[in-house]
């Protein structure tokens, strides 16, 4: 492992919670009669982020993400443990934190830049770039208290990413602002990451975590729940979210759900972990060793998933397709509880978990309708694979409708490989769509020379 930029050693943070605001005052006057409760927002966090890496932090509301970032940014002190950050930190935490509402945008840029350790000349040299990035027009010379929340975040982000940070800490800020600005932020963050800035990125947007981060950590109730590749961590996160929604995490506290299920189904289907999805997902070279992950409320289950080639053949041990081959994804399902409706869908994902192709029966205007226990049905999706020649995984899922919990969701149900095009064309992007190209030569060399 290379040089470590951020290291946390047994970091814990305890907040005091007072029943009433006046109790906080009472404690100051009568320190021995405190009525505060202790609340541990973080417990024993051990983490090392190598220089130049981007770490994504995910977790449910209240899991301790912001507390962790504030400790790293130095705006909160840990109760116990050691924090070490190697390099100049630029933190984009709460909206406009670090801004003085009475100052203009311009004054705040200088104020913030100085706080971040830049000289007046360095900020002046960067000012036009910052103002251009924020793109808030004449508002740059208005007090920031008159700004909309979108303007606030534009300026805050512009400062944070343009002050040569060595460590960048970003909390959800990209969620604010218009689409154009979000794209600009993403591009800038990528450029910073490419230039070797160590980044910590908190987000509820699993796509952004998968796209931007080298690794991820999931916090749960103040502790590290899991760490690993962004995709693996997001899968665990989604699994936990679903389990919590179903109340399966703590059956003892959810007797009605368990009793209700046991009342009409005694099979193993509803007990403990979902059954392993046993479809082979390995190719002969053993490249496809990704384990399937499964979650859902089990009202219906996916029984089998296959991909047929353009000839309608299925080879479970050799899922290799030609570039742009038309394939058929076949999903077999069985219903266990009455369903008022049913949507079945899929994603084809790259190795980072980015969704490249995907659709579902609803979006394709196919109404499955009501289903009864015991019914079995098959959904087939036919589509082409104009994809870069690498390996892909398939996620399949079904739910009663868009708002309900999925009844079954299987990540990595299958893994397949796409071959390079026969034509020898290099595929430079993720997808290669049909296109036509035209070149119009406006003038020839001699005409240009004559004009010159
Ligand atoms: N100053 C404080 N005093 C008391 N409790 C606090 C304080 N700050 C945070 N907490 C509590 O610590 C826990 C973790 O909060 P934190 O804001 O770090 O969570 P989070 O994961 O960032 O949540 P979210 O996704 O909602 O932003 C929460 O239960 C929160 O109520």
Notable traits:
AAA+_ATPase, globular, transport, 25% helix, alpha/beta, six-stranded mixed sheet, Coagulation Factor XIII, Chain A, domain 1, nucleotide-binding, binds adenosine-5'-triphosphate, 452 residues, Rossmann fold, Wzt_C
Could you write a compact summary of the structure shown?
With 452 residues, this protein is of the alpha/beta class.
Q: How many β-strand runs?
A: 18
- Assign the CATH superfamily of the largest domain: P-loop containing nucleotide triphosphate hydrolases
CATH architectural category of the largest domain:
3-Layer(aba) Sandwich
Give the neighbour order of strands across the main sheet. 5-6-7-3-8-9
**Contiguous uncertain segments of 5+ residues:** 249-266, 278-289
Radius of gyration computed on alpha carbons? 27 Å
Shape: globular
Number of discrete helical segments: 10
Structural class: alpha/beta
Main sheet summary: 6 strands, mixed
Distance between the termini: 58 Å
Bound small molecules, by name, code or SMILES, are: adenosine-5'-triphosphate
Number of domains: 2
- In terms of DSSP E residues, the strand content is 25-35%
N-to-C SSE string, H for helix and E for strand:
EHEEHEEHHHEHEHEEHHEEEEEEEEEH
Average pLDDT metric: 83
Keywords: ATP-binding, Nucleotide-binding, Transport
Organism: Chroogloeocystis siderophila 5.2 s.c.1
Family: Belongs to the ABC transporter superfamily.
Protein name: ABC transporter ATP-binding protein
List the helices and strands and how they pair.
Elements: E1 4-17, H1 21-29, E2 37-50, E3 54-58, H2 65-73, E4 80-85, E5 89-92, H3 105-115, H4 120-134, H5 149-161, E6 167-171, H6 179-194, E7 198-202, H7 206-212, E8 215-220, E9 223-228, H8 230-246, H9 255-264, E10 293-295, E11 300-308, E12 320-321, E13 326-335, E14 343-349, E15 355-360, E16 376-384, E17 391-399, E18 406-418, H10 445-451
Parallel strand pairs: 3-7, 3-8, 5-6, 6-7, 12-18
Antiparallel strand pairs: 1-2, 1-4, 8-9, 10-18, 11-13, 13-16, 14-15, 14-17, 17-18
Helix pairs in contact: 3-4, 4-5
Bound molecules: adenosine-5'-triphosphate (ATP).
């Amino acid at each position: 492992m290379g040089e470590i930029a951020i290291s946390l050693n047994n970091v814990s943070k305890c907040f005091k919670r007072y029943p009433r605001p006046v109790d906080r005052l009472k404690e100051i006057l009568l320190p021995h009669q405190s009525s505060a409760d202790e609340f541990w927002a973080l417990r024993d966090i051990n983490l090392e982020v190598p220089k130049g890496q981007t770490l994504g932090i995910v977790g449910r509301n209240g899991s301790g993400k912001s507390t962790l970032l504030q400790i790293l940014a130095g705006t909160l002190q840990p109760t116990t443990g050691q924090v070490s950050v190697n390099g100049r930190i630029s933190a984009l935490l709460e909206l406009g934190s670090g801004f003085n509402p009475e100052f203009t945008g311009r004054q705040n840029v200088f104020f913030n830049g100085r706080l971040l350790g830049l000289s007046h000349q360095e900020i002046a040299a960067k000012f036009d770039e910052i103002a251009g990035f924020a793109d808030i027009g004449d508002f740059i010379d208005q007090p920031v208290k008159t700004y909309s929340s979108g303007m606030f975040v534009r300026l805050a982000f512009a400062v944070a990413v343009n002050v040569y940070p060595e460590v960048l800490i970003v909390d959800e800020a990209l969620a604010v602002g218009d689409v154009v600005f979000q794209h600009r932020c993403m591009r800038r963050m990528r450029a910073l990451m490419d230039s070797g800035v160590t980044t910590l990125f908190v987000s509820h947007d699993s796509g952004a975590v998968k796209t931007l981060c080298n690794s991820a950590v999931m916090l749960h109730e103040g502790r590290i729940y899991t760490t690993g590749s962004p995709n693996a961590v997001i899968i665990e996160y989604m699994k936990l979210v679903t389990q919590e929604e179903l109340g399966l995490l703590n059956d003892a506290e959810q007797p009605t759900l368990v009793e209700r299920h046991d009342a009409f189904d005694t099979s193993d289907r509803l007990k403990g972990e979902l059954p392993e999805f046993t479809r082979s997902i390995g190719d002969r070279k053993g490249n496809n060793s990704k384990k399937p992950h499964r979650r859902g409320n089990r009202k219906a289950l996916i029984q089998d998933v296959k991909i047929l080639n353009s000839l309608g053949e299925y080879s479970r041990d050799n899922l290799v397709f030609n570039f742009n081959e038309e394939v058929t994804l076949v999903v077999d399902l069985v219903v266990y509880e009455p369903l008022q409706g049913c949507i079945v869908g899929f994603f084809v994902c790259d190795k980072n978990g980015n969704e490249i192709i995907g659709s579902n029966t609803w979006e394709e205007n196919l109404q499955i309708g009501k289903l009864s226990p015991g019914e079995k049905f098959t959904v087939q999706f036919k589509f082409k694979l104009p994809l870069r020649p690498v390996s892909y995984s398939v996620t399949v899922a079904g739910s009663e409708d868009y708002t309900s919990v999925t009844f079954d969701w299987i990540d990595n149900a299958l893994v397949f490989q796409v071959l390079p095009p026969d034509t020898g064309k290099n595929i430079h992007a993720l997808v290669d769509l049909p296109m036509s190209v035209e070149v119009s030569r406006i003038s020839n060399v001699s005409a240009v020379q004559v004009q010159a």
